[in-house]
């Protein structure tokens, strides 16, 4: 277990700034996800932590020790890549024990540690299997065991389940989370999947163009996104350009309170926070999709926009039915930052 500190970390490739002034502290035993679209810099940050990329600026500290210029093999970290990269000419045990052999550990100790690592990932007794006899999920477990057997202070995972089907990916991420909590190991996990981040992380770092947008707990990130990018990237969100005048949002399809200065703003409201009153109003039902556990209603707005509302049941609303739109929990943004947030569930109003 260890504390990780990133201070002003930056990476430049030629004229391209891949990561800019990145500051983050990961507590002992914490699981932090770096989340963002392709090209956001999240994997570059992870590779700088592991020593596979040299930082252009800033520092990487583990338990207070500066490891910024140390090579990967001299850092108390272990990396699990998206490609599990198992050696097909070796057995499962040979793959897992390779790093231990490089450390010149006695053969009996290597066998013991390999057995313990296999038991941790649910593959006890498979040390003599060939890797090409394993399923994709089993191969990922072997790759995880290979990382854990080195007893790193910090485990780094770079989209390790991206190539697996959804069902297997969900099962493995649950196993990784259970294992991380059982071992109490500090972990940094890179993903571009928001569901994966929300399910795994103690905290999530949302990145865009090499810059940290927001760091927060999953629940706060979902309910209080600080920027329009975070609002649109985490979960489903309706984003609507509106005008504010006299403390009210002015829009052809709805009115809502907005105690901020007059002017244009961006309204963000989640589908589950949109109430509909059929039979009147300027919104028009475009389509209703039944997903079994819930229904999604798409509504056309008078300004040619379209929003979605999530309902627990299938509404009896045919296409082109007029509806009034009542946004409940919602946020307002101006100049790329939140200026107001309302939560009618608790009766609280938050000003950013």
Could you walk me through the main structural features you see in this protein, from its secondary elements to its overall organization?
This protein is an alpha+beta fold. The chain folds into two domains: 225 residues, P-loop containing nucleotide triphosphate hydrolases (Rossmann fold); 115 residues, Beta Barrel (OB fold (Dihydrolipoamide Acetyltransferase, E2P)), CATH 2.40.50.140. A seven-stranded antiparallel β-sheet has the order 13-12-11-14-19-20-21. It is elongated. The longest helix has 18 residues. The two termini are 36 Å apart. Helices cover 24% and strands 38% of the residues. The relative contact order is 0.11.
| CATH-defined architecture of the largest domain | 3-Layer(aba) Sandwich
Order of helices and strands: EEEHEEEHHHEHEHEEHHEEEEEEEEEEE
Radius of gyration: 24 Å
Number of domains: 2
Major sheet: order of its strands? Answer: 13-12-11-14-19-20-21
Largest sheet: 7 strands, antiparallel
Q: Number of DSSP strands? A: 21
> Beta-sheet strand percentage?
35-45%
- Tally the helices: what do you get? 8
């Amino acid at each position: 277990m260890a504390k990780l500190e990133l201070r002003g970390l930056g990476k430049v490739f030629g004229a391209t700034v891949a990561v800019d002034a990145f500051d983050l502290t990961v507590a002992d035993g914490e699981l932090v996800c770096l989340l963002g679209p392709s090209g956001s810099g999240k994997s570059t940050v992870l590779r700088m932590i592991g020593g596979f990329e040299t930082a252009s600026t800033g520092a990487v500290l583990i338990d207070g020790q500066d490891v910024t210029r140390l090579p990967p093999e001299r850092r108390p970290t272990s990396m699990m890549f998206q490609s599990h990269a198992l050696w097909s000419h070796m057995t499962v045990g040979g793959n897992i024990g390779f790093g231990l052999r490089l450390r010149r550990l006695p053969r009996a100790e290597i066998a013991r540690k390999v057995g313990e690592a296999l038991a941790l990932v649910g593959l006890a007794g498979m040390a003599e299997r060939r890797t090409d006899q394993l399923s994709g999920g089993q191969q990922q477990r072997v790759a995880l065991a290979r990382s854990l057997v080195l007893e790193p202070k910090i485990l780094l995972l770079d989209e390790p389940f991206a190539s697996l089907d959804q069902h297997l990916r969900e099962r493995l991420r649950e196993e990784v989370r259970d294992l991380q909590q059982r071992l109490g190991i500090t972990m940094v996990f890179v993903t571009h999947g928001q569901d994966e981040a929300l399910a795994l992380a103690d905290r999530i770092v949302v990145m865009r163009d090499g810059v940290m947008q927001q760091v927060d707990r999953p629940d706060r990130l979902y309910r209080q996104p600080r920027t329009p990018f975070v609002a649109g990237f985490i979960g489903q969100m309706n984003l609507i350009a509106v005008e504010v005048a006299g403390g009210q949002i002015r829009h052809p399809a709805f009115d809502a309170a907005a105690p901020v200065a007059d002017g244009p703003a961006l309204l963000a409201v989640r589908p589950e926070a949109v109430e509909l009153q059929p039979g009147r109003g300027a919104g028009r039902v475009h389509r209703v999709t039944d997903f079994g556990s819930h229904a999604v209603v798409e509504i056309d707005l008078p300004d040619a926009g379209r929003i979605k509302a999530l309902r627990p049941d299938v509404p009896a609303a045919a296409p082109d039915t007029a509806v009034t739109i009542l946004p409940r929990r919602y946020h307002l943004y101006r100049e790329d930052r939140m200026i107001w947030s309302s939560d009618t569930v608790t009766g609280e109003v938050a000003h950013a």
